[in-house]
Amino acid sequence: MIPREALEYIAEAAFDDGSIFYNPEECDYEDFLMILRAAWEGTPLDRGLIKGV
User: Fold this and answer.
1) Count of CB atoms situated within 10 Å of the CB of 11
2) Number of domains in the chain
3) pLDDT tens for residues 28-41?
4) ∠ CA 33-5-27 to the nearest 5 degrees?
5) Phi, psi (degrees; rounded to nearest 5) at 32
6) What is the pTM for the complete model shown?
C-alpha cells in the first residue's frame, strides 16, 4: 500500500514524465493529485473537476 503522504511525489513525477504528451486529456499537477487521492480513497472521481476535460 502506498502511504497517502507519497501521493504528492507521485503526482509530481507523473506531471514531469514525458508520456504526458500522449495522454488524451490535458492534466496539470492538481489534476493528477486529485485523481490519485480519489484512487487512494476509493471514491468516485468527478471528471467535471479536471481542468483539461
Assistant:
1) 21
2) 1
3) 889 899 999 999 99
4) 10
5) -60, -45
6) 0.79
